[in-house]
Amino acid sequence: MTVFKNKIWLFVLLAVALVVCFFEADGKGDFYIFLSATGDLIKGDNFYENKYVDSYHYFYSVLFALILKPLYYLPFFWIKFCWLVFNTILYFHLFQLLTKHPLLQTLTEKQKSAFILLTFIFSLRFFLGNLHNSQITILILWTCVYGLYLIINNKPLSGAAILALGINIKLLPIVFLPYLIYRGYFKAFAFTLLFYFVYLFSPSLFIGHGYNLSLIKTWLSLINPINQIHVLDVEERSFHGLSTLLSTLLVKDVPDVYALPYKRNFADVAIPTLSQVLLAVRLILVSFTLYFLKWKPFIKAKTNWQQCIEISYLLLLIPLIFPHQQHYAFLFAVPAFTISLLYFISNYDVLSKNSKRYLYFFLSLIYLLANLKLLLGTFNDYYDHYKILTYGALLLIPILAWVNSKIKTIQQ
């Protein structure tokens, strides 16, 4: 890795990461919820009906709870520590994939180092947030990126197996199923569906088909996006995304017990109207994918730039259009920031003064909106109250669209 060429610095960085994992392993976090659901699986309970820690549901797959079963009786601290180390390894593997990407090969060593360092700085808040909450976002992002990497590099079977695992565990990578069809990866699409259903029903071999089926039904009901709890998505102050933002902007008295006494709505609509507006905005953002994919369908992306931009946009959509998204879920927004930053660095010498100012200002603004929680934590309640993280993610869309409009002149 270019920025980590000096092995001493790489060793120091990894050592610091291990220390962070050790200290973050103290306490329950969301990993306690994962293991609690596994415990109820062992007892034969419907763990999707139960609540854990501070009344939180388990929202993940039956298979994931089953995979954790061999670990259930081991000391919790060390299991959680290993989970955090595992996620750290995946995080650095994503950086390794990034440094090997063809788009970086035209950069000078100095540009590569600056690019990797700035990407690391931008993503650090989300990385630490995932470790602090012992979350699963890093794993899901890795299944998306590495699964697609394998598929694009003519390994549809292994790529589909990894992508389907991500879809099974948390459903979020499902946005890539239509992408695979549109880009003509028909084998990968078929294999992904096959693996998904294998993952979905394979627990039946260990817990019985009837029990597994009842769990799946409850799970699908729990994550149904039309449930009112997912429309008025303000159950926690740290929720972000379109459902949360629109609820705070369009409903005067949302049932947000953590809301500060400061106005943030500009309208007051009924819940059915909010649901319709939310659906319309989601459809607009999903439809806008066609701008990045371009015409014609069923053919591969013509350049590496186009491929990276369209995949980055789909990843960016995940924390925006899905409900119940915490701040750490915006790790999915990092690739969109990264490709925009890469365009800025690699084309700096040929960009006009206005373009440089435009990119510098908005990338800096997006960085601040995403990282004020880490840089100036005193006002965290205000950041969450006004959902500034969601605004930062939304600002990435016009930046990405602008970069997309410029890549016609780039051959790589």
Task: Describe the structure in your own words.
The chain contains 20 helices and two strands. The chain is an all-alpha fold. A two-stranded antiparallel sheet has the order 1-2. Helix 1 packs antiparallel against helix 4, helix 4 runs antiparallel to helix 5 and helix 6 packs antiparallel against helix 7.
β-strand amount? under 5%
Computed over alpha carbons, the radius of gyration is 21 Å
Write out the strand line-up for the largest beta sheet, numbering strands in chain order. 1-2
DSSP, total strands: 2
Structural class: mainly alpha
Brief descriptors of the model:
single chain; mainly alpha; two-stranded antiparallel ribbon; 67% helix; 1% strand; globular
Write the layout of secondary structure elements.
Elements: H1 7-24, H2 29-43, H3 62-67, H4 76-99, H5 109-132, H6 137-152, H7 156-170, H8 176-182, H9 186-201, H10 204-207, H11 209-222, H12 228-231, E1 239-240, H13 242-250, H14 271-287, H15 289-293, H16 304-321, E2 325-326, H17 334-346, H18 353-375, H19 380-386, H20 388-406
Helix pairs in contact: 1-4, 4-5, 4-6, 5-17, 6-7, 7-9, 8-9, 13-14, 16-17, 16-20, 17-18, 17-20, 18-20
